[in-house]
Design a protein that fits this description.
single chain, Nucleoside Triphosphate Pyrophosphohydrolase, 7-stranded mixed sheet, 6-stranded mixed sheet, 35% strand
């Protein structure tokens, strides 16, 4: 039986194992998938910026190779993380979601932001250390909110120009410095669609690797206002009846969980589980 994926800090001197190759939110893969024999892929003379031990997949060690730029490798192709979210198995997606966050962090933390010195991996921790000024740099997490706004038998859904064709989703936005998450919910809803909300209820969270968000999920009730989409951010927004919903986000997303949870509660059905 598969043991799946679990994160761990691995020493780069550990021999063997698997490797995933990442660059700019893309993963290299071939007919066998995205896990390459580590010793073999390191002999391919790839332009590697950094190597990080990620953890274990089916009890085998997995390492990340973060490249300077994507390049062609015979028999291989690059694939985006969103494709794995829609098509891959859950354990592989969890591995790659973690890998893309560590890869982005590794790319953006090669030099110290305090003194400009070259950063080195800190043994035993997921951190980079500056030998010149001793500052530690840890992987970044950006708190953000995502909210389902409802009005009885209707839910508010919107489209961003970045969404797949036809898909509508819940509203989301990043928390500003000095702002509570609850205040962020009210501000973002008003900014994006011109509405006021009330009775916020926190429902759960999900790490969101595009590239380093922590999504805090809420339900809110409509309190007033008319829909006015924010230019350039919201392509369309409208109220949808529960029995006439448009194409929705991936089942693995917290956005879909918020929608499915509300539907289940209104219809008296078993509640869904928030994906890990």
């Amino acid at each position: 039986m598969s043991s799946g994926w679990r994160a761990a800090i691995l020493d780069n001197d550990l021999a063997g194992g698997w490797a995933v190759v990442h660059c700019q939110q893309q993963f290299l893969g071939d007919a066998n998938g995205v896990l390459f024999p580590r010793d073999w892929i390191k002999r391919q003379e790839l332009p590697t910026l950094a190597e990080h031990g990620l953890g274990y997949f089916d009890d085998q060690p997995v390492f990340l190779l973060e490249l300077e730029q994507p390049l062609s490798v015979a028999g291989c192709a690059w694939q985006g993380l969103r494709q794995f979210m829609l098509q891959g198995d859950p354990a592989t997606f969890k591995l790659l979601a973690y890998a893309t966050q560590i890869g982005t962090w590794a790319r953006q933390h090669r030099f110290c932001g305090s003194c400009g010195g070259t950063l080195l991996q800190l043994p035993g921790e997921r951190a980079m250390q500056c030998p010149r000024c001793a500052v530690h740099h840890y992987p970044r997490l950006s708190p953000s909110m995502i909210v389902l706004v409802t009005r009885g038998e209707e839910i508010l859904l919107a489209r961003s120009p970045r969404f797949a064709t036809g898909v509508y989703s819940t509203l989301a936005g990043f928390v500003e410095p000095g702002e509570s998450v609850e205040a962020c919910v009210a501000r973002e809803v008003h900014e994006e669609v011109g509405l006021q909300v009330r009775n916020l209820q926190y429902l759960g969270s999900q790490g969101w690797p595009f590239p380093h968000s922590l999504m805090l999920g809420f339900h809110a009730e409509y309190a007033g206002g008319d829909i006015v989409p924010q230019p350039e951010e919201i392509e369309d927004a409208r109220w949808f009846a529960l029995d006439a919903l448009p194409p929705l986000p991936s089942q693995r997303s917290i956005a879909r969980y918020l929608i499915d949870l509300y539907l289940a509660r209104r219809l008296g059905q078993p509640e869904p589980r928030l994906p890990d």
